[in-house]
Amino acid sequence: MSSLVGPDEDDPRGKPPVPEDVQEAIRTLIRWTGDDPEREGLQDTPKRVARAWKEYCVGYEEDPAVHLSRVFEEVGGYDEIVLLKDIPFQSHCEHHMAPIIGKAAIAYLPTDHVVGISKLARVLHGYARRLQIQERLTAEVAQCIWDNLQPKGVAVVIEASHACMTARGVRTPGVGMVTSRVMGTFRKDDRSRKEVLGLMGY
Ligand SMILES: [Zn+2]
């Protein structure tokens, strides 16, 4: 008779071991919420959950600024806004450890150098893959670009829905939260701010 269980996705080969106390913590939570952590379907769950959390929080293992260390100086005189928008991301709120799912728009006004465009998304993910609040995530991304690229301006707008609001508590699916951080020219000059927010679609 063939097994109902598919290929063992939890094959420990190549995967870091999960300490026993971490597994026990997840078993405790399962027990506390009302299930039996020893039943068949839940036996490997503590390991899977632990490894999933390591992945959700992999940002702790990196300094997002490293993505901005390589810049390009041949910009052909380009001194207008550089914008990456609709960048999907996932994070987890530090209050409930529940998913935050959303998209970000990141813009800067270069001085005499630019950065590979995908690097802006990498900076976002470096901070998103931690326990976060949306406000701090927005500020950290903006500050990292400001400090490391030394642009004339930075604007970051993040729009996200929080599972701690949509799946529990007030249970209001479809609600999005918008946060923004503008620095430099985008903060000081009304017209530049309107221009960048307009390009972002706000
Ligand atoms: Zn929350």
TrEMBL record:
One of its GO terms (biological process) is tetrahydrofolate biosynthetic process. It is an enzyme of class 3 (hydrolase). Zn(2+) binds at residues 93, 96, 164. Residues 23-199 form the GTP cyclohydrolase I domain. It holds the Pfam family GTP_cyclohydroI. Keywords: GTP-binding, Hydrolase, Metal-binding, Nucleotide-binding, One-carbon metabolism, Zinc. Residues 1-20 are annotated as: Disordered. This is GTP cyclohydrolase 1. It comes from Altericroceibacterium spongiae.
